[in-house]
């Protein structure tokens, strides 16, 4: 049987369509292309994957037009979503539990940090003779914002050593140069923050570190298990209404997580905005090195993470009833799992 040129073209066309079929099946229409993300301290290494996903165009690759609104702390970023001015929070995992305790369903769907990456340090100028937690009584402790994860670590540390949150004064100092100035000028006696702020104060000897959750070991020693930290989370209603959009967000974040693990501090410092370096690229790069282990390599939330966070909240929040919380309802790895299948190499 002879095959004409027209037959060949038909066969080639059919083969092309068949080859495209899986891609067509996989391509899911986004329910929402414009997404507003609220974050509390965008320049922090705690949220580095968010900045990398934006800077390297990963959101755009997924067909998303993402706007990022930066706030003084995670609690204020959450307020933006509660108030309706943002769709998704780039914030601390434990806020999903706190919201469930108030009867509001929020769920984390991709991880940025697998350790809190928060350091608490006391001022060597204001507290030169610091001996232990009891010395913090009556002192001013700077956090990014009251109610944020930096506040949580302070409260957990105090409770662990028999002190109450009311034994200290919590002062919001933000997550940038203002936080460094607040400590150096003596406005606060101690600080709870993340890098690069912590390294900016630690390396010149301005502070003595008394709590360090930048490594997995230290985090597990302090909290008794894996403590998920920075993540993207949203109201359950948003996730239910926009599953393809949430998948696209997750794809971008998982690519960022993987790129960070492959790139060195030098390359990362070139990609982020210059303002992130706080005027000292060497300190910023050193801070990246210290925090790299705490950043998620794949966006997956650890299986025991919610239970660990629940115990931490119950340990220091007097009005928090952990018995009423279902930890399984505040997180999912479904989106991150699919993102890893799509981008195994980032």
Descriptive report:
The chain has 346 residues and is an alpha/beta fold. It has 15 helices and ten strands. The protein has helices at residues 5-26, 48-55, 58-61, 74-82, 94-101, 149-160, 177-184, 197-202, 216-223, 236-241, 243-262, 265-271, 281-291, 305-316, 334-342, and strands at 34-40, 65-71, 88-92, 106-111, 118-123, 140-143, 169-172, 190-194, 207-212, 230-235. Helix 2 (48-55) packs across helix 11, helix 6 (149-160) packs across helix 14 (305-316) and helix 12 (265-271) crosses helix 13 (281-291). The relative contact order is 0.18.
Compact description:
With 346 residues, this protein is α/β, with parallel strands linked by helices. 43% of the residues lie in helices and 16% in strands. It folds into two domains: 34-116 and 228-342, 3-Layer(aba) Sandwich (D-Maltodextrin-Binding Protein, domain 2); 118-223, Periplasmic binding protein-like II (D-Maltodextrin-Binding Protein, domain 2, 3-Layer(aba) Sandwich), CATH 3.40.190.10.
